[in-house]
Task: structure prediction
Amino acid sequence: MCTQQSDIVLVDKPVGFSSFQIVRLLKNKYEKVGHAGTLDPFASGLLVMLIGSATRRFNEFQTYEKEYHGQMLMGYVTDTYDITGRILDHNEQLGECAVEHLQSIAQDFIGNIEQVPPRFSALKLGGRKMYELSRAGKTVDPPKRSVCIHEFTLTTFTRRVLGFRTIVGKGTYIRSLAHDFGQRAGYGAVLLSLRRTRIGSYSVDNAHSLGSLMNKTTG
Result:
C-alpha cells in the first residue's frame, strides 16, 4: 500500500465491520482519511478509502455508478428493509413465483425512479441521523428522492431466496430497492445479503483484504 499523503486505497470490507471501523484502522497510519461511500455492517465488498488530499474527491466519487450482487428473501418485510431488522410481516404462501414474472417486475425499476430511503439509515432529518431517531422511537418519514437504476437483473431463484445483480447511480439504497421489489411482487422482500463489487472503474478484485490492510497499517 502506498504511503504517500494523497492516495486511494481499495478495501474489501468483510461482513460484520462498519465503514467507520475501517476508517479508524487507516487512521493508525494516516492523519486524514475518508471514504467514497459507506457500506452497512451486514454488507461486504468494495470501500474506496480516500487519503490526505484525495478526500477532496469525495463529491467526484458520488457521481460514479456502483455495482452490487446480492440476495433477497421473499415473503418478509422488516423495519430496516434487510434481514437484521424487526419482522413486520411474514407471508408463508408465496404462490407461483414464475422467474419470468419476477424478472419483468425487476425491469420496471430500471431508469429514473422515486425511492424512499429506509428509516434506519444515516441520512439526517433535523440534524439527527434517521436511524438514531428510529431507534429512539421517534416517527420518521423520509422524503422521496429521485435515483437512477441502470441495471437490475435476477440471477438465481431457489425457494424463497432470489439472487440479483444491479448497477445504480448516486444516492440509491439497495435495501429500499429490495423492499419496493417485494411490494410490487405482492409477497414482500428483504435484503438477505449484499456485496459491492465496483465503484466507477474501481473493482473489488483489486482491493486489500482486511488482514492485508491490518498488516500494512501496523507494519
About this structure: Residues 66-198 form a domain with the Pseudouridine synthase fold (CATH 3.30.2350.10). DSSP finds six helices and 13 strands in the chain. Confidence is low (pLDDT under 50) at residues 1-5. The chain has two domains: 6-63+202-218, 66-198.
